[in-house]
Design brief:
- The complex is a heterodimer of chains A (about 400) and B (about 450).
- Chain A folds into 2 domains: about 5-320, Formate dehydrogenase/DMSO reductase fold; about 320-395.
- Chain A is about 80% helix and about 0% strand.
- Chain A has helices at about 5-10, 20-55, 60-90, 95-105, 105-130, 135-160, 165-170, 190-195, 200-215, 220-255, 260-275, 280-310, 325-355, 365-395.
- In chain A, helix 2 (about 20-55) crosses helix 9 (about 200-215), helix 2 packs across helix 12 and helix 5 (about 105-130) runs antiparallel to helix 6 (about 135-160).
- With about 450 residues, chain B is mainly α.
- Chain B is built from 16 helices and 2 strands.
- In chain B, strand 1 (about 315-320) and strand 2 form a beta hairpin.
- In chain B, helix 3 (about 90-125) packs antiparallel against helix 4.
- The longest helix of chain B has about 35 residues, at about 20-50.
- The chains are: A mainly alpha (about 400), B mainly alpha (about 450).
- At the A-B interface, helix 1, helix 3, helix 4, helix 5 and helix 7 of A face helix 2, helix 3, helix 4 and helix 6 of B.
């Protein structure tokens, strides 16, 4: 595709801040989103195995509902975390985002309802399994398949968006315009690598799960040991599969010797050793986050290079600086988001470690964080209305 | 090279692609308004339970209410990006304009979403695992975060109707775009509706509790009746203010269907006032099936036509009164350096300036006239009208029935001169008008 066309497809309003910031936010938020996609996929898949053993095996009797619950919460979180990378990508890569979505318009529509049906069925699976041990197998399998299909559709949008030279052929093959929105593309090796990561992610999750519960007297030692060793097995096997598929993907696109690619390979090897030893899975999780960021950066590098070769660089996007709204975002993100989420997670951690009712009003950290969160939210509202009224008075009087 | 930034066109036969947005939007409005309303209701109930030491209210909140809360958040969190996604396929430049003006506002809203999604699970699963005072704080913060999401999205959807003042066009500032004259009335109108919906859905729950605890069921049904009545009153009150802040083109569209819209709203007001009154005076009469049916009445007779009307009143624009529904920039926005695309289209024609028109259709000939006319008609009209003879959504056939080629061309020329305030003033070269008219005639409406 011609550079002049790609440049014309940028929004004439320009972008409200420096492009590199959007790029960095994209890499960061995609990694967070992907982490929960993989945890959801891994815990859902493992829970289905659990439903087969749940009746007879006391370990799986306890573990299966926890995996189902983990999948349930992870889907919700992956959805909300997924909004951010979508937002940032379309600010700087408008040609890619909007062309892929219009070419695959029907799939876009189907994607939304696939996700709704899949998630509602997952709730059905959750309640069926809660009611009867080993229950809801079929519903669970169907919901898993439906949600995986939603993931494949998302993969289609990503792959189509980085095929700018094919767009015209997809839209008007042989000069005949096709407005149907049924464009569908897949890159099997790339998809296989991404999906394979679900296995080590659920493996490391199980190591964390075991470590977290090891201080609770109501969980037996056998259970703690079994979940840790299952986590290690899954982690090791999964990482080997991921490493192989990653190398194949890099060979396919000729990026294996790129420093970023080599860093990912090194990161996977480090993870493999750490998972195998299982000395402290919380630190392993930290390394996993770094590797996830590197993988996210790799995806971005591939796209950046494809577009740069065609003469489209995001760094040349005209900037129309917009200070008040980015100030609002940064303050809300850091202050309100930071304090608020810290409060929720501190509480979750302490409740999880505690048997019976946890009295947060007697816990200094929980009480303070809660009071700060409420005060910040009220202050936020005051500033919002004050700002709005000032603008309005200024413009209408 | 004279090209404008138009994207490939996605068209859904018989209905057009805009209805997809409408359908997802309607479901989202029910879910999102319910979720914000439910968050406020929960804060109220938690406060009452804590202050009056009413431990009987906690099981109610847990067993029924939390399911509702999660359910509305699940559906709301999927259909929210869903509207955005389907709008991207149907109106790429419209949504792009919003994104490039308001990306930081959306990013801020996302912070609230993250808080809400983690918060909703903490709220649900910790109701009997933490002390009541901490839980009360959680419900308050949750309600505030929910209202925060409304406060952030409302300026964006109000801007879709219009920026409210001329300031935005001169400054290009997101603050001027966000806080238009329409923003606050729109916000309070929706808050009223959220309060009403939380009561309406609360009635399903309270009526379902009769078998377990008749007295509590009646008490809560009465309360939900009062809450719904208050919400309904706020809706009516702020609707007056809201209508007064709409631009002229919106009133022009509204006037076309004014009588039937008003009639419909009067009937709805009467029916729901009676329903809420019964809940207050005779709570035992409210049954779960009746309460469930009333939700569908709101969905089908309230939200769907209401959102369709709001979408119609934006015409011919899709965002900020500078982008037409057919994805053409129709005016300069000096503050952002945006130029109107109408002059270049009038001079070169749509086929020449759209980069996704294949080479064989760039120049109209006798051989490709119908094919070019079909593409031009889809590019110019299909965002709002279905084109087929059997089209369902604002079909062209109803507007151009029985017209010959010359009559259609005259209509197109009049439209290009701005004869209809709710239609784009899109001037095209003679050969493109001719191709459109030839194609429409060939459909034999």
């Amino acid at each position: 595709m011609d550079a002049s066309v790609l440049l014309a497809l940028r929004d004439p309003a320009g972008i409200p801040f420096y492009p590199v910031v959007f790029q960095a936010l994209y890499i960061l938020t995609w990694a967070l989103h992907a982490a929960f996609v993989l945890l959801a996929l891994g815990s859902m898949g493992l829970s289905l195995v659990g439903t087969l053993k749940q009746d007879s095996d006391p370990t799986w009797k306890l573990l299966t509902p926890h995996l189902i619950q983990t999948g349930k919460i992870s889907i919700s979180i992956l959805i909300v975390l997924g909004v951010a990378p979508l937002l940032f990508t379309q600010v700087i890569y408008d040609p890619n985002w909007y062309v892929a979505n219009t070419l695959s318009g029907m799939w876009v529509f189907i994607f939304i309802y696939t996700l709704i049906v899949g998630y509602i069925m997952y709730y059905w699976y959750y309640y069926a399994n809660k009611k009867t041990e080993g229950g809801g197998k079929l519903v669970g399998i169907i919901s898993f398949a439906v949600l995986v299909f939603a993931g494949v559709l998302m993969h289609n949008f990503a792959v189509t968006s980085i095929m700018p030279n094919e767009w015209m052929n997809m839209y008007a093959p042989n000069g005949v315009v096709d407005n149907s929105g049924w464009t569908f593309n897949m890159d099997i090796i790339r998809l296989a690598f991404m999906v394979s990561l679900a296995i080590p992610v659920v493996g490391i999750f199980l190591q964390n799960y075991s470590r977290f519960l090891s201080t609770r007297p109501d969980f037996s030692e056998e259970f703690i040991e079994y979940t840790a060793s299952l986590g290690t097995k899954l982690g090791v096997v999964g990482l080997i599969i991921s490493a192989i598929t990653f190398v194949l993907w890099m060979l396919q696109i000729n990026y294996l010797m790129h420093p970023l690619s080599l860093a990912i390979v090194a990161g996977v090897v480090v993870l493999l050793i750490m998972v195998f030893q299982n000395k402290n899975s919380y630190i392993t999780t930290g390394v996993l986050v770094v590797v996830a960021l590197l993988i996210s950066a790799m995806r971005e590098l591939i796209r950046f290079d494809i577009m740069a070769k065609l003469g489209y660089s995001i760094y040349d996007y005209p900037v129309n600086l917009e200070i008040p709204t980015i100030t609002m975002f940064l303050l809300t993100f850091l202050v309100l988001g930071g304090v608020g989420v810290a409060w929720l997670l501190t509480m979750a951690w302490k409740v999880g470690k505690n048997q019976g009712v946890f009295d947060g009003s007697k816990d200094v950290a929980v009480t303070k964080l809660g009071n700060y969160t409420l005060a910040i939210m009220i202050l936020w509202m005051v500033i919002y209305f004050g700002w709005g009224m000032t603008i309005l008075f200024n413009n209408i009087l | 090279m004279d090209i404008i930034g138009q994207f490939p066109l996605f068209y859904f036969p018989e209905y057009g692609s805009a209805w997809m947005m409408g359908m997802t939007g309607t479901i989202h409005i029910l879910a999102s308004h319910t979720s914000v309303g439910a968050a406020m209701l929960f804060a109220f109930l938690a406060y009452k339970a804590y202050k009056e030491d009413r431990s009987d209210l906690y099981p109610y909140m847990k067993k029924y209410g939390m399911f509702l809360l999660i359910f509305s958040y699940v559906i709301g969190s999927i259909t929210g990006p869903g509207i955005w996604y389907t709008a991207t396929a149907a109106s790429p430049r419209g949504i792009s304009a919003l994104i490039h003006n308001f990306v930081w506002v959306w990013a801020t809203e996302w912070v609230f979403f993250v808080y809400e999604v983690i918060g909703v699970f903490v709220l649900v699963y910790f109701i009997d695992k933490i002390d009541k005072k901490t839980h009360l704080k959680l419900t308050f913060s949750f309600a505030l975060a929910s209202v925060g999401t409304l406060a952030l999205i409302i300026g964006i959807i109000s801007f879709m109707m219009w920026p409210g003042t001329e300031a935005y066009y001169a400054t290009g500032s997101a603050s001027d775009a966000f806080f238009g004259t329409n923003t606050f009335p729109h916000m309070f109108l929706r808050i009223g509706f959220m309060i009403m919906l939380s009561g309406v859905i609360g009635l399903v729950i309270s009526s379902a509790m009769k078998k377990e605890n008749l007295e509590l069921s009646r008490e809560l049904t009465k309360k939900m009746g009062y809450i719904s009545m208050l919400g309904g009153f706020l809706v009516l009150f702020f609707f007056m203010w809201y209508m007064g802040t709409l631009p002229d083109n919106a009133h022009a569209v509204f006037n076309v269907t004014k009588d039937s819209v008003i009639q419909n709203r009067i009937i709805l007001t009467g029916v729901f006032s009676l329903y809420f009154l019964v809940a207050i005076v005779r709570p035992q009469v409210i049954s779960t099936p009746l309460a469930g049916v009333m939700i569908f009445v709101i969905l089908l007779a309230g939200i769907w036509p209401g959102e369709k009307l709001r979408e119609s009143m934006r015409k011919p624009y899709v965002a900020g009164q500078y982008i037409y529904s057919n994805q053409i920039i129709s005016r300069d926005v000096e503050g952002k350096g945006i130029k109107s695309e109408l002059p270049i289209i009038a001079e070169k024609g749509l086929l020449q300036v759209n980069p996704f028109v294949p080479e064989n259709l760039k120049v109209i000939t006798e051989e490709n006239k119908l094919e070019a006319g079909k593409l031009l008609t889809r590019m110019s009209c299909s965002n709002c009208h279905s084109l087929e003879k059997t089209g369902k959504y604002r079909p062209l056939k109803d507007r151009l029935k029985g017209m010959d080629k010359e009559a259609i061309k005259s209509t197109l020329y009049a439209m290009g001169d701005g004869a209809f305030p709710y239609m784009p003033s899109l001037k095209l070269p003679e050969e493109e008008y001719d191709a459109i008219a030839a194609y429409i005639v060939s459909l034999k409406y």
